Amino acid sequence: xxxxxxxYHRQMLLPGFGEDGQRRLRQSTVLLLGCGAxxxxxxxxxxxxxxxxxxxxxxxxxxxxxxxxxxxxxxxxVADGTPKAQAAKRKLxxxxxxxxxxxxxxxxxxxxxxxxxxxxxxxxxxxxxxxxRYLANDLAVKSARPYVYGAAVGTTGMAFxxxxxxxxxxxWENAAGDNFATPCFRCLFEDAPAPGTLATCDTSGVIxxxxxxxxxxxxxxxxxxxxxxxxxxxxxxxxxxxWSNELxxxxxxxxxxxGDCPCCKHRQFDFLDGKAGSSAAVLCGRNAxxxxxxxxxxxxxxxxxxxxLRDHGEVSKNDFMLRATISxxxxxxxxxxxxxxxxxxxxxxxxxxxxxxYARFIGA
Length: 364
Description:
By secondary structure, the protein is α/β, with parallel strands linked by helices. The chain has helices spanning about 10, 20-25, 35-50, 75-80, 85-95, 115, 130-145, 185-190, 200-205, 210-225, 255-260, 300-310, 350-360, and strands spanning about 30-35, 55-60, 100-105, 120-125, 145-155, 155-160, 235-240, 245-250, 280-285, 290, 315, 320-325, 330-335, 345. The chain starts with 8 loop residues before the first helix and ends with a helix.
């Protein structure tokens, strides 16, 4: 065993892992979609496991309410207003300096996900909205790469691994007769639910142990995939509720055969093509709306905007973002503005109100 692998000795003792598996991990790239509750736990575990390259994409910054469950962050990150991707990169460097971490502070959408996913071997879900999960699933099926779904809200959680069907000569579905392919996310949930029909962290809260269990399950599945143990990947949908002591493995392996999935059977990538989805997203547990605008030539002049907003409220900025608190007689809004024109408007969960605040104080 080489000295540079000695820190992984306990992991390499596992059956189906060994030194070969560890070397596979070191040569692999994981795209982590979001680095909030699920994503921060997953990032920590993947770095400790020795994944070679972590690409972390997250649009948000660290807030005090995150610390209840988002394990990579601390009060200094809150005070500094540090973007989560950057804070995660800094912490992971202290955990395992041999892991390359690429931190991207941006919103994941149909215009950029293919570019950010370039070179990634597997996508791990740390998202806070269902639209982007359909987007990630579209890319997974189109590009024949695995996607490990996860979600947690209240005391409940779900997780499932997608090894896409119809991937050609993929390692899990190949000419040698091996077929460990699973249904895709859209096989299980064909249509996105109407807004307001799903529980959110804001309406139902969230307990940290539910987050931890789901994220640990996701990383376990990702490690199976990255070490080529495709026969070990679960074909069941994990569903748990810690408060009612329920843990179920729902048998969904035949959903592909029994269904008529528009994504993996008909190769329709509605979310990836921009035919589905929206430019406004209500953020989980934040009483906030994110608005995405087309990037202006050269980006937004953060200093100029800060100068204007100082007449309307308290303003602070760093290298990554501007934050302004706007107090009105009927409401208080906090505007977080990024150089590409993207903004998070806190103080409302109504996209129309958020657009109005943006247009008034930033400019349409």
